Amino acid sequence: MILKVFAVRDRATDQYGNPMFLVNAGQAIRSFSDEVNKNGDGNMLAAHPDDFDLYELGSFDCDTGLFSTVTPRHVAVGKDLVLPKK
How many Å separate Cα 25 from the centre of its chain? Predict the structure, then answer.
């Protein structure tokens, strides 16, 4: 199975977070959106959604253990995924 590799980049620190291995960009966007909208103490993504972007970094082959990297591809902006408060 081939998994896509994604990471969240913090614009304020100019750093990428730990990579996530997911099936596709849709799943990555849903996960990122969930975190951006999850209120709670210490959740930097929800507190500062303008500072975070989601990037695709490549793929990982679960059968061979090989990575394939690409130039980081911008997928989503945190602030664009913030849901209106109910």
Answer: 9
φ, ψ for residue 19, nearest 5 deg: -70, 150
Give φ, ψ of 51 to 5 degrees: -90, -5
Per-residue confidence (pLDDT) for residue 41, from 0 to 100:
82
Looking from the CA of 62 toward its CB, the CA atoms found within 13 Å total 8
Task: Give per-residue pLDDT as tens, 27-62.
Answer: 999 999 999 999 878 899 999 999 999 999 999 999
d(CA 29, CA 23): 11
What are the angstrom distances between the C-alpha of 76 and each of 3, 16, 27, 71? 18, 14, 12, 15
DSSP string for 26-77: HHHHHHHHHHHT---TT-HHHH-GGGEEEEEEEEEETTT--EEEEEEEEEEE
